[in-house]
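User:
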Amino acid sequence: MALITIEGMEFYAYHGHFAEEQLIGTWFTIDLFLTTDTSKAEISDNLHDTVNYLEVYQVVKREMEINSKLLEHLGRRIVGAVMTHFPTVTHARVIVKKMNPPLGGKMDFVSLTIES
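Assistant: Predicted structure:
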């Protein structure tokens, strides 16, 4: 088994509970950790024998384009979509960071981690 990570994916999106967040939007950062068997690719050196990072990114991007009110909902959708699209992935963890959240004070981000 191996751990494939794709960290620091940045998206401008419109997720949030408040109407203003869904109109104005903000930056989000996604970190994804995927456990999968890479033994075949380790020998074959063939992209078709492992998880294609570009396809993973595209799955995450599609989910980011669908508005959610809660990070919990967004995180679960990302994990579900990745697990569905890549059946060789046995475990997935996503960290969703909402940059500069409108909470009335200065902070870098709020985040949510979901695993499946």
